Amino acid sequence: xxxxxxxxxxxxxxxxxxxxxxxxxxxxxxxxxxxxxxxxxxxxxxxxxxxxxxxxxxxxxxxxxxxxxxxxxxxxxxxxxxxxxxxxxxxxxxxxxxxxxxxxxxxxxxxxxxxxxxxxxxxxxxxxxxxxxxxxxxxxxxxxxxxxxxxxxxxxxxxxxxxxxxxxxxxxxxxxxxxxxxxxxxxxxxxxxxxxxxxxxxxxxxxxxxxxxxxxxxxxxxxxxxxxxxxxxxxxxxxxxxxxxxxxxxxxxxxxxxxxxxxxxxxxxxxxxxxxxxxxxxxxxxxxxxxxxxxxxxxxxxxxxxxxxxxxxxxxxxxxxxxxxxxxxxxxxxxxxxxxxxxxxxxxxxxxxxxxxxxxxxxx
Length: 364
Prior knowledge:
Layout: E1 2-9, H1 37-43, E2 54-59, H2 63-69, E3 78-81, H3 87-101, E4 105-111, E5 115-116, H4 119-132, E6 139-144, E7 155-158, E8 171-177, H5 182-191, E9 194-204, H6 205-215, H7 217-232, H8 235-248, H9 254-262, E10 268-273, E11 277-278, H10 283-288, E12 298-300, E13 303-306, E14 312-314, E15 320-323, E16 328-332, E17 337-341, H11 348-357
Parallel strand pairs: 1-2, 1-4, 2-3, 6-10, 12-14, 13-15, 14-16
Antiparallel strand pairs: 4-9, 5-11, 6-9, 7-8, 7-9, 8-10, 16-17
Helix pairs in contact: 3-6, 3-7, 3-9, 6-7, 7-8
């Protein structure tokens, strides 16, 4: 088996507004250090996957910026989506491309915007997932040991009735659950057999294509011509097939379209892990994994905090002063300033939707 990585980088990250915009999606932001999120994602793959076997699926307007951030990746490894169609078509696109080039390809699917702090532990989980992916038709996802009843993640229930191994190992997935309410999330946590769904997957390219054909035949049919065109090597035919595939395919996620219906077939597996993972989905998530002072504040830029606690502040060029407040997220992007309660950061997307629908596209 030949190992490849596919970095999913097609989103905008509207919950990280005002820093994340259409022109500067969150994967290109230096949220935690001088490197961007997508550069960190690429770096943690080394030396497991060589640069020439790393692919990125992104939108057409982000191709050049992706190349700028990841110059070690060959230009032809950046797969451009002509329009957004969610994760199932994006993964089918990558799988069809890789299968045309290498019928034995094994794919690691990663998001461009995750944070992972214990890379050696992450590699151990990936190695266990890769080993399981050798099984015919097996679909493997990485599950995160939950530490609190998070309502912003999907969950996976798994079968550990025969006991848990000392090292990372694969277990049958029993149920894929959508984002729960708080009471349900608390029940999941108490049960001990639910994991957060990380959105990290490992499988053979032919295995996922077979499952897409079974559960999403319309998506599969759309990308068969893409695979044939890639095999031919005709650049014009490839682009024409890609454009046509994305026009035909519906918008649907891989979780809803494939993983959930496939779970009862007992060939969907999860490898549990605990390696300091966050999906960096909103400013609360950024705060959670940022360094903090004794009062629980995480501050970057020209910032002064006084009698303030449990707050995240990200400056731009002006001085920002917080006095006598708690549990705030304050983010300055120069032309826009966000101030919100920490428990309301998921609602930032609503503001982005409002801006777009009220003729304020310059801020989106």
